[in-house]
Every structure is written in structure tokens, then in C-alpha cells.
Design brief:
Order of helices and strands: HEHEHEHEEHEHHEHEHEEHHE
CATH superfamily of the largest domain: Periplasmic binding protein-like II
Keywords: Signal
Number of helices: 11
CATH architecture of the largest domain: 3-Layer(aba) Sandwich
CATH class of the largest domain: Alpha Beta
GO molecular function: molybdate ion binding
Radius of gyration: 22 Å
Number of domains: 2
Number of strands: 11
CATH topology of the largest domain: D-Maltodextrin-Binding Protein, domain 2
Strand content: 15-25%
Oligomer: single chain
Structural class: alpha/beta
Protein name: Substrate-binding domain-containing protein
Strand order of the largest sheet: 2-1-3-10-4-11
Organism: Pseudomonas xantholysinigenes
InterPro entries: ModA/WtpA (IPR050682)
Length: about 260
């Protein structure tokens, strides 16, 4: 018997029954669910013994960091967390396994101003319209909420001509960060992406009659290295016991 074979047999004899090697899962997540993931991920890692490598990027758009663009370049991942309809497109393209799709949370859009500035009243549609018309500048994201703001919200409020020259889509970075620096007077983005940023005051969510609810979902890419462990993570993120944490980040739980 060779020395190598003896060593392998000795190692096997030392491994307890049921032992599994810990996996290093690569998770690509977009902004809306990131705050919840940042709290829940370490808990999953501790309980499962697996480690998580996190890659941030928007659910859509032209930025190289966008999750679809990363996968198109051949970057590998075990889990992707993103806007539901953007995930569905990846499933349609065969980049994510259809039977792995899990719905995680609903995300609503909110508004922030720079810290120290008066908090506007946007509790009604009339109040939101008045607030936006009075703004010197408005920033919005390059993901789902920003597409809605640019293409639908301003039109619904009847203020698109007035807002067009003083509003801008912000790529890659949190909208609240440019408001905190004073580059823009107001910012619109999903609430869960606004709340973690220091230096701004959260004015509230948009009124329901002009609100846009984005469903966040997750799936396992077809090139995942650890699909079984990835499924465990998805089940955990959607489980009843984590919903209080999900809600604390500004998201709403998905009705089950």
C-alpha cells in the first residue's frame, strides 16, 4: 500500500460520520435587500458553518457591477438576490435555475433630505407633489425604484417637464450618500437602501396611491459551485423566524 493511500485512509477514519466540509458561498445581492442580508448572513454563517463572500451590484442597468452584467461576463455565484422581475429574466435566459426561485420581501420607495434640513410632509400625494416641485434638485437610483420615478412617478404627479432638468439618476452608489454630501437636495430610493446611510433625514414612504412595490427574490445560478448550501441560505432568508429582522430594515414581509 502506498504512503499516499495510507494517509488518505487514516484521514477518512478520523472524519466523523455525517461530517461535511464548510462551503464558501458567493452571494451577489442588490441594494434593496442588502441591509437585511447584512444582518442575517452572519447568523446563517454561524449556525451553518459556511462562510459568505458578498458581491454588491444593482439588479439591472448598464453599470459593470450590475448582477446580470457580472453573470454575462462569466462571474460565478452561488446565490443572487435581486428585484424579482430582473431575476425572472435571468431564469428565462437559463442563467438561474427556475426551481430555485424564492421570494424574500417587498420594498417601497421613500424620500430623504440632508440632515438638518426641514422634514417635508409627503404623507399625501398633494404634499409629495408640492415637495418635489419646490426641490432645487432630486436624485434617484439606477435600479427598479429609479426607473419607476423617472418613467412613471413624475408623470403621475404631472410634474415631469418641471423635474426633468433638475433630477438625475445616480449610478452604483446609494442615492442618500449624494444627498448627505449636499450634491442634491432630495433623494428617492427604496426605503431599505435609504435608512442605513448617515447624514440624511428620512421623510417617509411615498403615498400608496403613487407607490411602487418591488418584490425582491433570490435564486441559484446555473454555475453555482455549492447549490445544496445555497438552498439552505435561501430557505433561511425566507423563513418566518427572520421576518422581524427583515421588517426592521424597512422592508415588508411577503405574505405566505
Amino acid at each position: 500500500m502506498s504512503l499516499l493511500r495510507q494517509a488518505l485512509l487514516a484521514l477518512a477514519a478520523c472524519v466523523p460520520c455525517g461530517f461535511t466540509w464548510a462551503a464558501d458561498l458567493t452571494v451577489m445581492t442588490s441594494g434593496g435587500f442588502t441591509a437585511a442580508y447584512n444582518r442575517l448572513g452572519p447568523q446563517f454563517a454561524t449556525s451553518s458553518g459556511n462562510t459568505l463572500t458578498t458581491v454588491l451590484g444593482p439588479s439591472m442597468g448598464k453599470a459593470p457591477e450590475a448582477i446580470p452584467n457580472r453573470l454575462q461576463r462569466g462571474e460565478s455565484a452561488d446565490v443572487v438576490i435581486m428585484v424579482g422581475y430582473a431575476l425572472d429574466e435571468l431564469i428565462h435566459q437559463g442563467k438561474v435555475a427556475a426551481d430555485s426561485r424564492v421570494e424574500l420581501a417587498d420594498s417601497r420607495i421613500g424620500l430623504v433630505v440632508r440632515a438638518g434640513q426641514p422634514k417635508p410632509d409627503i404623507s399625501t400625494t398633494a404634499g409629495l407633489k408640492k415637495t418635489l416641485l419646490a426641490a432645487r434638485s432630486v436624485a434617484y437610483s439606477d435600479s427598479a425604484s429609479g426607473v419607476y420615478v423617472e418613467k412613471q412617478l413624475f408623470a403621475k404627479l404631472g410634474i415631469q417637464p418641471q423635474l426633468a432638468p433638475r433630477s438625475r439618476m445616480i449610478e452604483r452608489i446609494p442615492v442618500a450618500s449624494v444627498v448627505a454630501k449636499g450634491d442634491y437636495q432630495m433623494g428617492l430610493q427604496q426605503v431599505a437602501e435609504l435608512l442605513p446611510v448617515p447624514g440624511v433625514t428620512f421623510a417617509g414612504k411615498l403615498p400608496e396611491d403613487v407607490q411602487s412595490v418591488t418584490r425582491f427574490a433570490a435564486g441559484i445560478p446555473s454555475n453555482a459551485q455549492h447549490p445544496a448550501e445555497a438552498r439552505q441560505l435561501l430557505d433561511y432568508l425566507a423563513s418566518p423566524q427572520v421576518q422581524a429582522t427583515v421588517q426592521a430594515t424597512g422592508l415588508d414581509s411577503v405574505p405566505r
